[in-house]
Design brief:
Elements: H1 14-21, H2 28-91, H3 104-121, H4 129-138, H5 147-160, H6 168-185, H7 190-209, H8 212-224
Helix pairs in contact: 2-5, 2-6, 2-7, 3-5, 5-6, 6-7, 7-8
Length: 229
């Protein structure tokens, strides 16, 4: 038989046969290329996540500034309401049995709160911070924007007239409603909506108590109930 220059499988050398029979292994250059490509894809994903978080951080800072401004306005309204009710009480101080009129002042304030809720805003009574937690669980943090002017006016009437409620619940509701309104306007999903509601609540606590770190811990422990970066 003439030699065609093609060696049969049996006549191959052992090292050549092992090269074809053994497992295929990547060369060092191929491994380096795969590592560079994986690193590049990881860098792209991290950069894309940072760009998405940049928008969220910008919105969080804007919500904090807006809630701080609303907190100042709320404080001014409460002070003006307190001065108004004080003037009414001082005007009736010259009449007989003026001390008996003291319990009527918060009663008048409560009556005004009920009338405003029923005939102006046409909403039911809120439950303060539990209402926010309930909205996070049931409706993914969707709060009505009308909560902002409603709580400003009704809470100012109640507190200014000597009611027993404090400023913490109304201002937290106002801040959370601001965060929820921004999320609804931008059509955010449930996760980002919850984050913006928590940002509003944290800014509200920071405003009313002048405690930024306390506001953050309050939002994490009470509003969200979980910790994440």
């Amino acid at each position: 038989m003439a030699d065609t220059g093609i060696r049969s499988w049996r006549r191959w050398r052992p090292k050549d046969r092992a090269r074809f029979e053994g497992p295929v292994r990547l060369r060092p250059a191929r491994r380096a290329f795969s590592f560079r490509r994986s690193s590049f894809l990881l860098y792209r994903s991290i950069r894309a996540g940072a760009q998405r978080d940049r928008l969220l951080l910008t919105l969080a800072a804007s919500i904090g500034a807006l809630v701080g401004l609303c907190g100042y306005v709320f404080h001014v309204i409460v002070e003006r309401m307190a001065e108004l009710f004080s003037l009414l009480f001082e005007a009736s101080a010259n009449y007989p049995f003026s001390l008996a009129l003291i319990p009527l002042v918060p009663a008048v304030g409560g009556l005004l709160v009920g009338l405003v809720d029923r005939y102006i805003f046409r909403t039911g009574r809120g439950h303060g911070i539990p209402e926010i937690i309930q909205s996070l669980i049931i409706s993914d943090g969707v709060l009505r924007p009308i909560t902002i002017p409603q709580k400003m006016l009704t809470a100012a009437l109640s507190i200014g007239s000597g009611g027993g409620g404090g400023r913490e619940g109304p201002i937290v509701q106002i801040g959370s409603a601001i965060g929820s309104s921004v999320g609804q306007a931008l059509r955010f999903g449930p996760d980002r909506m919850r984050t913006l509601v928590a940002c509003g609540a944290a800014a509200a606590i920071s405003t009313i108590f002048n405690a930024p770190l306390g506001g953050v811990m309050f939002a994490l422990e009470v509003i969200l109930g979980e910790f994440s970066v």
